[in-house]
């Protein structure tokens, strides 16, 4: 009798091995791009650091751009998850919950300088990473919309104002963090968080006024 091959080796399935290789490639890419820059990322280099054969690289990713893009989006998703948890676990007025979310987001992105470099500094000049960055920023904006509705219990009819405000917050915050990382702002991280939180709260506080103007009622 011939026993069917299940793909399991030493108790580990083929799917688990593929995911492990993918994880090691992402971790290696984080270290290379986050310390040496995107230009240093090569198939050979990332495979050597991850201890993964080149043929398995192409099993996980079609090319280096796909690897870098997936890494960027993963870092952004992790930070957004932290922000959502912070809002859910923080009690009190909207301003306190918004500040907690901003602090969680910025802390998650900047605790590891490699993560900050990938999200804020490495996308420029690479088309695939720019597309991933824009996709990530749209996700951030959508999260701001979602959480703003939860925190403020907004009435219907403010969709355009909320969408526009979320894009302004997202784009402005990203550029400000980039300037801070480059040494252009003489403040520590707590100061940066306070600045971003105050800006976010001020923008959200103006939502009814902005909505009124857009709807022709103000």
From TrEMBL:
One of its GO terms (molecular function) is transcription cis-regulatory region binding. Residues 42-61 bind DNA. InterPro entries: Homeodomain-like_sf, HTH-type_TetR-like_transc_reg, HTH_TetR, Tet_transcr_reg_TetR-rel_C_sf. Residues 19-79 form the HTH tetR-type domain. It holds the Pfam family TetR_N. Keywords: DNA-binding. The keyword Transmembrane helix does not apply. PANTHER family: HTH-TYPE TRANSCRIPTIONAL REGULATOR PKSA, HTH-TYPE TRANSCRIPTIONAL REGULATOR RUTR. This is Transcriptional regulator, TetR family.
